[in-house]
Request: fold
Amino acid sequence: MSEDELVKAMSGMKGILKVIPLTESDVKEIERLEAEAENNVLMGFCKGINVGVREALAKKRVYACLTDMNLKWPECSLIKIVCGSEVIGEQVVDKERLEGLKACGNIVTGDVVFYKEKMRLIRERQGEMRVLILPLEMPEILGIKAKVGSPSPPADSYLKRRLDANLEDPKLGTVLVGFDA
Reply:
């Protein structure tokens, strides 16, 4: 699969305005920016791990995509709050399920639920807690499965500069797409 074919296929997707391949130095800079972001507290709660970005950057070919409000985000949980291997909270996009969880006494903030039976872990093992930002799901591109990550604000700004995008436009965003093919 040629680079031109991949760029053309991604550029033709609704909500993707521009696509560029990333250089090795781009990947290193994004890794640095993401490592800094992961050391900060997310959601006023605990440190985070951007699993989606890490997985995209680990691929042989990595692309930055400039997106707009027309990009269709997957209707699945993209955030999990974990303590070790236990999920203590997560994003729930299904409104009916969210209401059911709330009715059962779980703590709901926006579209994030904290499971009442796991709340003791917050007190007992707060230093072990992490917010996981999961990979986005994207349809196969030209028959190739991709890993897609939503970068942190500092990496997003870096990518917008590389994509010659308006840094002040709140309707623009970026995603990283990685392929092994």
In short: The chain has a mean pLDDT of 92.
